[in-house]
Structures are given as C-alpha cells and as structure tokens.
Design brief:
Distance between the termini: 25 Å
Mean pLDDT: 91
CATH architecture of the largest domain: 3-Layer(aba) Sandwich
Helix content: 25-40%
Structural class: alpha/beta
Shape: elongated
Number of helices: 8
Largest sheet: 6 strands, parallel
Low-confidence stretches: none
Number of strands: 9
Strand content: 15-25%
Strand order of the largest sheet: 3-2-1-7-8-9
Length: 229
C-alpha cells in the first residue's frame, strides 16, 4: 500500500485546447457547422453514419498531430510525490503521452473503436473507420466514444475513486456536462479542492476551495508550487 496522498484530477477540454485541440464550446470549435446531435448522438449515427465516421476520423488525425502541453506534463510530474488518478472528459491520449499512468476516460477514447452491438468488443484504431468495417461479431464498427444521450459506463468507477481522495483538482472544464460535473459533489467539504480555469465556473463555496483563474498551463504550475510549499 502506498503512503502517498491520493490526488484525483478531473480534466476537461480546456487542458487540451492549449495543445491546439478545439472544443465544441468554442465559437470556432470542432462542432461548428454541425448540430451536435448530428455527429455525437445515437440519432445522428442512425441518420448518417458516414458523416459521423468522417467527423471522428478527422478528430483522430487532429489528436495524432497534437502534443501534450506543460499542463499535461505537470500533472504527470505529481506522481513523484502523490498517488494520482486522472479522470478526463477528453477523448485524446495526451495524458498518456505526458506520462500519467492512472487515467479514467469518461467519454471514451478516439484511438479505440467498438462494435455497435457489443460495447465490450473494442479494438485499437490509428487510421480511419469506414462504412463496411466490421467487428468479429459482424457488426459495423463505430468510434469508442460516449455520445450525448448515452450512459457513461465508467462513471461508477470514477465515483469510487472520489471516495478514496485526499485532494481534488479540476482543470479546464466548464462543469456543465453531466454526469462528469457531478463528481465535484462527491468531494467532501473538508477536502482540499482546487479549480483551475481561465474562467472559473459557478461553484458552491466551501472552506477548502482554492480558485486559480488561469489557463491550464499556468494554473497547473501554480498548483505544483502550492502543493510543494
């Protein structure tokens, strides 16, 4: 058993935006030109699966071309002194590439695909998925992404991690997407909690809340200084 304190970090699109990955909440974001439900919902998939596949094929290329930034590396460096679990809303692999070793992807992973029939039939994918690409069970392959109106399969795992948390950190998320945003409510009031964002979202105050209103790259640096002092 480790004697290190356990830091749980919830990350959102803001941390990856500084690596050049746009978000659908940006005015020029990657959902621009598409109704979100056209490309990220079961309804959109049923209506036009080729559009959805092309959309995520482009996202996969974007992620492959991106690199981790100093916020990703800073969170990975915390593992020197802490037991760190990253719970991320992001579908990219930038935390992995930065060196973090314990990561829960709430909304799936862009470099994985699965059968439309069996959520457990999952494969790695680096290139494109095309119509007619089939899983072993004969079903069409789709991105291993949690779309709007779908359940978050690993949410229960994420909640369990919160019960074993000594320090909670939120980085680069608007706290508007549920159920991910509800993780903040599982942090006990006595728990030291840090929220890092260029625009701090509306949160209920509690005695151990520290707000760092900075971009992720600057905010994680400040977090490291605070934790080392």
């Amino acid at each position: 058993m480790s004697n290190k304190k356990h830091i749980v970090v919830l990350t959102g699109a803001g941390i990856s935006a500084e690596s050049g990955l746009k978000t659908f909440r940006d005015s020029d974001g990657l959902w621009n030109g598409h109704d979100v439900y056209e490309v990220a919902s079961p309804r959109g998939w049923a209506k036009n699966p080729e559009l959805v596949l092309n959309f995520y094929n482009a996202r996969r290329r974007d992620v492959a071309a991106a690199t981790p930034n100093i916020a990703h590396y800073g969170l990975a460096e915390l593992e020197k002194d802490y037991d760190v679990t990253i719970i991320t809303q992001n579908i990219d692999d930038l935390h992995e590439r930065a060196g973090s070793t314990k990561i829960i992807h709430l909304h799936g992973e862009i470099f994985k695909m699965r059968s439309v029939y069996d959520t457990n039939t999952i494969y790695d994918i680096r290139g494109d998925i095309q119509l007619g690409d089939l899983a072993e069970d004969g079903a069409q392959l789709r991105p291993h992404i949690v779309w709007f109106e779908e359940e978050v399969p690993v949410m229960e795992q994420a909640v369990k991690v919160m019960y074993d948390c000594d320090i909670f950190v939120v980085v680069g998320t608007s706290l508007q997407v549920y159920p991910a945003a509800s993780l903040l409510h599982y942090a006990p009031r006595h728990l030291p909690t840090f929220i890092i964002d260029r625009k701090i979202p509306a949160v209920h105050h509690h005695p151990n809340l520290t707000l760092i209103e900075k971009p992720a790259t600057e905010g994680v640096k400040e977090l490291q200084k605070i934790l080392s002092s």
